[in-house]
Amino acid sequence: MDAHIKFETAPDKVARRITKMRPSAVRLLFAAANRPDIISLAGGMPDVSLLPKSAVRKAAKAALDDQAVTLQYGSTNGLPETAKAFCDIVRDIGIRHKPENVIITTGAQEALDLIGKTFLDPGDICLTEGPTYLGALQAFSAYEPDIRTIPFDDQGMRMDLLEEELERIGKDNPRLKFLYTIPNFQNPGGVTMSPDRRKRLIELSHEYGFIVVEDDPYGRLRYEGGHCLPLRALDESVIYLGTISKMFAAGLRVGWIMATPGVIGKINLAKQGTDLSGSVFDQKMAAAYFTETPWQHTLQKFVKTYDRRRRAMLAALEEYFPPEVTWTHPEGGFFVWVTLPPYVDTGSMLAEALDHGVIYTPGDGFYPDGKQGHNCMRIAFCYESPENINEAIRRLAEVIEDRLELYRAFIAAGALPNAGVAE
Fold it and tell me: Does 217 have pLDDT greater than 80?
């Protein structure tokens, strides 16, 4: 017992990589989000109540009827029929891929971890949008890379700033491994990379010798504008990550990696040491759903519902938020990125927002160093009703106005506060 206690209090026994990892801001907010008095704009949770029960039952029955397979160990790459189903559902967005070059993962989150595990040594460089998906930052940071962020505007990652960073890194630098991007309705920014920038990104990847990792969880959820070809459709060297979480069921934890045979082989080795294989039952359910049910019809229901909620959020932002605040205008996906004046700290403001019955995700968690984005927040429109969204934005506007009034009081007193002082 004494030895156990001694170990529990010995931080020197913990791997260095763990000490450098930060907890997920969204996960920490889950407890608050479940309170009945709270309207949550924090998590990107799909509304699974929209799924027809008959389709879910049919998919589950298909898995149960084949229990000799679905309750057994599976191959590391995953069920061939599931890989084929995923290749089929991306064909109409421009991707042609062979099922044998697919790895089925435990959600796209495992895919991100496998990418880091396969390609990153300590000190290696990976590039991302800034801000970017905090789950990717968590996955990559375990392998101790040098994560460098490239800002975006309403057309996606800025290629001029990427080129400047690449010039600093140098061509064919062995430390530069990959660039991770969410080109469609980016998380957390909600922006979409323009076709011209997609083409330029591919050109730069060949010029400077890095891999492009494309994460596309939201690509099917477009509410306005025209379809943009995935990066994977422009260049077969792109590693393409996907998930059923936003099209079917997040709880099944099924995603995929599509890549060239050589890359798939290396990732297979990494996955063998991680989980041997994913859940065959979940894979069978996913395959049945996308081959035996009218999933496209349900997808359109998702699109229409999320679009109504998006419009409600954008209208409420326009009505309630003060002119000092700006936000993105997503054409799809789940999220809006809000930028407040630099003297407002959204992390410290969260407690006041909770008192007003609303939560969001502070912006600093979407940067690798946690030192940027302190005056930003991500708000999600995917889960709450339009009425709740309107009320949440009204409450949040009151909180923000309180902060701005405090700042104005500083100005009136002749004292200009630094960032974070008006807290």
Answer: yes
For residue range 70-128, list pLDDT tens digits in order: 999 999 999 999 999 999 999 999 999 999 999 999 999 999 999 999 999 999 999 99
The neighbour count for residue 74, using CB atoms within 10 Å, is 19
**pTM for this entry:** 0.92
- Secondary structure class of 398 (helix, strand, coil): helix
Residue extents of the structural domains in the chain: 2-50+297-410, 53-292
CATH class of 2-50+297-410: alpha beta
Buried b (16+ CB within 10 A) or exposed e, 412-421: eeeeeeeeee
Other CB atoms within a 10 A radius of the CB of residue 67 amount to 12
Q: How far apart are CA 89 and CA 147, in angstroms?
A: 32
pLDDT confidence band for 420 (50 / 70 / 90): very low
User: Is CATH 3.40.50.620 correct for 53-292?
Assistant: no
Tokens of 186: 């980016």
Amino acid making up residue 311: R
Residue-by-residue DSSP string for 354-373: HHTTEE-EEGGGGSTTS-S-
